[in-house]
């Protein structure tokens, strides 16, 4: 999936989001959304506004965009107030997740012998 620059720091050759691969859970041991520490129950789910890589809550970014993401919004904000209006992730989160699931191909069960 190709991510627009407003919602991803950059993409790799295969179109995946580089900053999403960099994002870590708050303990710093595991990738975001794959935490195994005592915070796993809250770290492995994200709802509402998210950071650009969509793997962490808005304002709690841990990828290379943390310096630009983890501060209050100045200027015009999206409806939730947590992201700039040009890169809103609050109302889009469910629609984007549904779209991604709709274009993913399940190669594990498509062909049965």
How is this structure best described in words?
With 113 residues, the protein is mainly α. The protein has one domain. The protein is built from four helices and no strands. The protein has helices spanning 18-22, 40-43, 66-69, 93-103. The protein is globular. Mean pLDDT is 73; it is low at 1-6.
Q: Ends: how far apart?
A: 30 Å
Number of strands: 0
Shape label:
globular
The proportion of residues in beta strands is: under 5%
Biggest β-sheet: count, sense, barrel?
none
Low-confidence stretches: 1-6
Number of domains: 1
Task: Please tell me how large the radius of gyration is.
Answer: 15 Å
Helix content: 10-25%
Q: Overall mean pLDDT score?
A: 73
Order of helices and strands: HHHH
Class per helix and strand makeup: mainly alpha
How many helices in DSSP terms? 4
Domain DUF7871: 5-109
Protein name: DUF7871 domain-containing protein
Pfam family, one: DUF7871
InterPro entries: DUF7871
SSE map:
Blueprint: H1 18-22, H2 40-43, H3 66-69, H4 93-103
Organism: Petromyces alliaceus (Aspergillus alliaceus)
Domain DUF7871: 5-109
InterPro entries: DUF7871
